[in-house]
Amino acid sequence: GAVVSQHPSRVICKSGTSVKIECRSLDFQATTMFWYRQFPKKSLMLMATSNEGSKATYEQGVEKDKFLINHASLTLSTLTVTSAHPEDSSFYICSARDSVLALDEQYFGPGTRLTVT
Amino acid sequence: AQSVSQHNHHVILSEAASLELGCNYSYGGTVNLFWYVQYPGQHLQLLLKYFSGDPLVKGIKGFEAEFIKSKFSFNLRKPSVQWSDTAEYFCAVTLKAAGNKLTFGGGTRVLVKP
Fold first, then answer.
1. List of chain A residues whose C-beta atoms are within 8 Å of the C-beta of residue B60
2. Which residues contact A82 (CB under 8 A, 6 or more apart)?
3. pLDDT for B19-51, tens place per residue?
4. CA distance A17 to chain B (A)
5. Which CATH number fits domain B4-113: 3.60.60.10, 3.40.1280.10, 2.60.40.10, 3.30.70.2860?
6. pLDDT per residue over A85-103, tens digit each?
7. Most CB atoms within 10 A, among A40, B3, B61, B85?
């Protein structure tokens, strides 16, 4: 089946530094990937839609200069949290849609827990 | 604005009891509907989905859901739960007019007591 991986699974960084999170579709091509944020005991909130070869589309209220998204290939999207602060600590989850099958179904990665100290 | 609501935040039940989780959405257009499950420490997995056709959808692990268009609902059911069904359940909707972005409900934590 369709598998999405994320790296790293956990990261701890100091306030003011930047952190990059990778999202890969392992056995399918994904022109579209999504980045979500999940707060403790809360639901997933869509942050942005990552489009291969073009700029990401950010949801209202999400700072595009803080959460940099790059989707340079059909199997890889990266989210960089720039100048991280403690309030950026969260669980970040990516998902991908199979471009070939073109179904309205997203496959989710295991998530990355970011802790900013 | 589009929204998805799940009525129960927490559900506690015993093994072999029946489970029904409510989900309502507030769209007027064509929707695709999903239920996802997140077991403790694991990533989101798709339980079932509805795109079109028979409004009664059967998914994995004995789950089913019924799409009632007139009620804007997509409730999840399982006749007899097991301890291993302890998880968080999320209803989600995509709206074609909104670019098929997934909007999630708030989630329901289900605890099944052995």
1. none
2. A18, A65, A66, A67, A68
3. 999 999 998 788 899 999 999 888 899 999 999
4. 27
5. 2.60.40.10
6. 999 999 999 999 887 776 7
7. B85
